[in-house]
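Hi Y.,

Following your request, here is the sequence exactly as I used it, all 139 residues.
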Amino acid sequence: MSLPYLALVEALVTITSCTFLRCEATFATSYGGAILFLGTSLVVQDSHFEACTSSTSGGAINHGCYGQKFGSTTILNSRFVENESVLGGAVALLCDSTDRHLISSSYFSRNVAAFMPSTESGGIGGDLYLNYGLVDVQG
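Below is the corresponding structure, written out as tokens. Let me know if you'd prefer a different format.
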């Protein structure tokens, strides 16, 4: 069993120029292979996520901002390659309907949202899974 590389709660976090390789969150209900973030504002810039896996959601990043006053995720100039999870092979944003997110100048390739035959669920959002809120995706 392994847990996320970084687990951050109730914080304003900026991650810059980091590389996350082969991170795993494989416990039965693990979220975010590299980063599990339960807080208000997450900024990831100039970073690389490759071959990260999660058994539940967010192969590389899982941001759960339920119940926060405001939640946002900003991803700038970052790369997501060959990450895998059930919901959001690379990134899962599990937030409220008023939350806003930005993905800009980032690269996504060969990320996989795997279907789970045992629960007959998943397989949604190879690169990105968003359950509520708004995402602005820019070239």
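The CA atoms of residues 7 and 36 lie 5 Å apart.

Thanks again,
Q.
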